[in-house]
Amino acid sequence: MKSCNKLKKFQKINFIYITSLEYCNVFVSQIIDWLHLYQEKEVSFELWRLSSLKKLIFNRKAETLETQLIRKLYQGRVKKLFIIKPKISLGLIFNTLLFSIFLSRKLLSQKKLLIQTRSPDLWKPLKFFKLIFPNKLKIIYDSRAAIAEELIYSNPNQFNILKEEIKRISQDEIEMIKISDKTFCVSNILIEYHLQKDSNIDRSRFFLYPCSSNSDVFFYSKEKRREYRERYRLTEKIVFVYSGGLKSPWHIPEKIFELFAGLFDLDNNSFLIILSPDKDIAEQYITNLQIPRNSILVSSVTNVEVSGFLCASDVAFLLRDDVKMNNVASPTKFAEYILTGLPVIISKNVGDFSSFVKDNDLGLVINNEFSEENIIEIHSYFNKKAESFLNRRTEIAELGLSKYSKNLNTDSIIEQYLSIIS
User: Fold this and answer.
1) Which domains does the chain have, with CATH numbers?
2) DSSP assignment, residue 244?
3) SS3 31
4) CA 222 to chain centre
5) DSSP state at residue 293
């Protein structure tokens, strides 16, 4: 009866998810995968991918190809809208008119409209529609990061040049939160970050929504562990693993390889698995640090294979600089590590995760300074706890399942949608 009532309510609502994120692995794992899980619960979003009018003019072929890829993967409606950057008046007018064309039928229908967006710079046109249709339009701001802090971190020597842009982005985030009925945040630290910028915002307007992974793909299996360790001749090795990109500066790949090089010097039975599309970057660090090539496997694989490699590993790396951008973050790889029962070497102050590791004895929180003394301490810690962690793999995976499974967290998100539209 309860599910029937939910279904009836959802039939009276149009759902739209709006994002300007370019197609990539994150787009698939953190947008399309979630939307498919919602579809299983009878919540069907129309997906709007925003791109710039400039790209349509100068790179039409790539834009068309991207749209085809999204439509091939997503089993729902997809629209590609080309907008002008809203920081100029022409952009604001153009975008508002464009949205009017595509939203008018939905706003004038008998159904309510719920828009979820990752794009804070859309607050002005959305505020316009909200003023006209206050009871019909509901908005969720999907806050995945501190966007202004990312710009600062990625451009360390251009703060004065970018000062106005940083100020605008920061203000856009606050204004989007103000017009939204709810703001989904990936960490408690990110919620605090937003509240510090405007103390008048009510904390109850936020919903904690950590980056999670598909527990049908990422889970611990003794059989998988045995299979992968035998296949890659790792049965006698201490296996460290890093899964993710190496290209972006916040991945600090130099630290990953520096740490492993130090651990290998202490124990040449150590082995590193790098699961990344950026294989050329990995090879550069291997060469520069003169790490024996037979002590590292570098590969770009499917999520199913990633899960197998994580099961085969003993310790995972998640290193970040101690800056605001990372202090509020929620890297998806952490969910993948914990769901497969892996202990983690994690930098201090990475979102809510560093304290989670410390509080639950899931690995070691470090400061990214790899002196000989620190390397010895890290090696000694895992050497002493190796058997204990191996025996706890299933326990750690079950904890991950309760906290970071997309599949199990979907119902709580659906409840948020119901409360917003009620």
Assistant:
1) 2-212+406-421 (3.40.50.2000), 222-404 (3.40.50.2000)
2) S
3) helix
4) 27
5) G
Residue 303: what are its φ and ψ, rounded to 5°?
A: -60, -35
List pLDDT tens digits, range 284-321.
999 999 999 999 999 999 889 999 999 999 999 999 99
Alpha helices in 289-405 (DSSP H): 303-312, 324-327, 332-339, 353-359, 372-391, 393-404
pLDDT tens digit sequence for 181-192 = 999 999 999 999
Task: Look at the block and give the residue holding tokens 């299979």.
Answer: 227
In the three-class reduction of DSSP (H, G, I as helix; E, B as strand; rest coil), residue 419 is classed as helix
170 near 148, Cβ under 8 Å?
Answer: yes
Q: Which residues have C-beta within 8 Å of that of residue 363, sequence separation ≥ 6?
A: 315, 316, 343, 344, 345, 346, 357
Predicted TM-score (pTM) of the model is: 0.93
pLDDT in tens, 146-204: 999 999 998 888 888 889 999 999 999 999 999 999 999 999 999 999 999 998 999 99
Decide the pairing of beta strands 270-275 and 363-366.
unpaired
- β-pair partners for 235: none
φ, ψ for residue 82 (rounded to 5)? -105, 120
Contact 266, 375 (CB under 8 A): yes
List the structure tokens of 225: 């562990």
Sign of CA dihedral 389, 400, 269, 255: negative
Question: Which ranges constitute the DSSP H helices of 18-112?
Answer: 25-27, 33-40, 53-58, 60-73, 89-108
CA 369 to chain centre: 26
Q: What SS3 state is found at 40? A: helix
How many angstroms from the chain centroid is the CA of residue 419? 25
